[in-house]
Amino acid sequence: MKVIIDSAIPYIQGILEPFAEVLYRSGEDFTPSDVRSADVLIIRTRTRCDEALLAGSNVKLIATATIGFDHIDLAYCAAHGIEVVTAAGCNAAGVLQWVAATLALLSAKEGWQPHERTLGIVGVGNVGSLVEQYARAWGFRVLRCDPPRKEREGGDFLPLEEVAAQADIITFHTPLDSTTHHLIDDSLIALMPSTGTIINASRGEVASTKALRKATQRLCIDVWEREPNIDLALLDKAFVATPHIAGYSAQGKANASSIVVRAIAQRFALPLTEWYPEAVKPTLRQPIGWQEMCRSIATHCDLAAQTRILKEHYVDFEALRNNYHYREEYF
Is 21 a catalytic residue? Predict the structure, then answer.
């Protein structure tokens, strides 16, 4: 068996070598000639898996150590018998803590307490549900928008337009697909309070860069169109600006590596179906009060410092992302 692994995926080196021929490549350097004889690809978002890469290959399984899958041509994979596995939910707590750090900065800057603000959550899956849980406990009025869940479950999910019109802060946690591409556009922004805040830690293409550049709202952005070649006017304008690292916790990365290794073990009958990186201690979810979170969050996730670094060193976007020191989850 031959496996090609994105060299930026942590904790995984040496794990599959006893059972397979393993090659490591940077995410942008997976080539058709490498892939042709591979059975398994372990990737991140930087590797586009489509016909151009996969045609004529022996690939049977693509495992992405990410929650997103818009970098994979699912239709092509289905038509050619290629199984696709994602690490859905792996970094939910990491993103939660990035959002918490963002809210703490906003509160300090604007002088409000949670009970004085309405938080809109767009996309209430693994990440959005966790954000909802903690935001309600902290005292925010929470409005939810998730059309697929509304269709499946009913409940109090609201149309996006209603959430935008009522929310002081709106945070996006949607996948990227044909229904969410440029979901944040001029028309949506026009519905929002002009003094509100937009938080995007989902996918860069969920928001129109052109629309965001004209927005009067505060912008807190972790994901950008055309990464790593991000729009400098938008970067300059953003209140919080980080290089696509919202989910970059040690536990989130360990979870992702564990999920993809276990999937391969299950598919090829390897004795790794319970594997988890020994170097990382999983974090148990626990409550934390608003004041305690605000007091402690910068020690774990200092977004003010990270924003300064990205604004000063934007040409190093990819290096800042790839060399980011994974933070420890603590709630």
Answer: no
